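FORM 7B - TANDEM STRUCTURE REPORT

SECTION 1: FIRST PROTEIN
SEQUENCE AND TOKENS:
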Amino acid sequence: MPRHAHEAGFTLLEVMVAFIIAALACIVLYKAGVSGMTEAVTAARYQEALVRAQSRLAAVGPLVKLQTEQLSGDDGGGFHWQIHIAAGPSTGTLTLYDVQVTERFGTRVVTLTTKRLGPST
């Protein structure tokens, strides 16, 4: 047998090392993909919470009477809301109210605050 024919090809050790490196690369790529999907779902939930909080905030004034109070409820889908209205400075006939809307989902929270002008109570 010629000497160069005996040296051709890969050894079992080289094949095993290449397989282990490929397997580790696949695991890292899989974990990165799963992590990206989890973050995308969390971002979508934040977006939904923000839209729900904006909707609640828009309803304060025309639909919710402006007075010092605290309201809360369940939006479904794991979302819980809370509205806190506190009276601020008053001119006698008008009062500036501090309005805070909080939307919770799981351990995460989205809070929006504004001020609304309304009649004194």
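SECTION 2: SECOND PROTEIN
SEQUENCE AND TOKENS:
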Amino acid sequence: MQTTTINGAYAAPADVRVVGVVGTGSVGASWTALFLAYGIRVQAFDPAPLAEERARAFVGAAWPALMARMGTPDRAIPQDQLRFCASIAEAADGAQAMQENGPERPELKAEIIAAIDAAAGPDQVIMSSTGGIIPSVLQKSCRNPRRFVVLHPLNPAHLLPLVEVVGGEDTAPETMDWAMTFARRIGKRPIRLKREATGHMTNRLQFALLREAVHCVVQDIASPSDIDEAVRYGLAPRWALMGGLLTMHLAGGQGGMRGILDHAGEAIEGWWDSLGKPHLDQATRGQLLAAALEVAQGHSIDDWVAWRDRNLARIVQLIEQDNGPEAPLTTENAA
């Protein structure tokens, strides 16, 4: 099949029919489910024992919530569109793009990416799911670093729309553009980072809150269940609609951001200064293991994942139905 290309290099995102997926743990299997849902055939490789059985089981468990989110609850899994391969080279053969999900260890990840780069043709984009390693480090192992880009999803990748698109020093602008368009083609809401940073951006936001949650556990400020309840019933409902900056802007009433800064700026600085800096030493680890038992309430991981996915699909649908006020009337859109 002949496809159109971007700058004569990559297949246009709309023409992507096959993606090679390397690594099918929870992230890779989640991507696999999403690709299958959008009509993309997956050629997967994972050297771990029972990798295929586990990946197919993951896709089977993830499929109902994913189909509910897409509004096609009766659609069956296209099992014949997922093929496991014996090597990275076989997974790359005939694919229009490669997607990497190796362990979050820089040396091992770089080794896997080097193998993908060696196997992939020059017209194949290489996308990495790394959650925090800066792309400039990883693309050093590529002979063709210009086609390497980070597509970092939020867990679970098959349900949460956000994906961070991050380029390294050698990533070509057209690769960034391609990745943004491809992400939209598979139902994602991509954000393009202006510069790379350890942890990218969303994980930095997420783990800032998590660090303070751990501090609250260590200092026995509240029970683990109440710490999570504060997020679930206080912060999360607003955050499902708007981010922290818009939340702060609205907190200032008619004065907006200026109003809240004038009213509470000094107090906010004081709160920042008092935030904790816990360390994951043995004592803290023990407290967190006990906290996990408390918040799990006796239910298994599988029980919670099924509950999470079922309800995430509903929440994402709600958010996407109403994404904010209509654009204000201007001279540009008045006509």
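SECTION 3: OBSERVATIONS ON SECOND PROTEIN
The beta strands are 5-6, 10-11, 18-22, 41-45, 82-84, 97-100, 125-128, 148-153, 162-166, 189-192.
The chain has two domains: 5-192, 203-321.

SECTION 4: SIGNATURE
Preparer initials: ____
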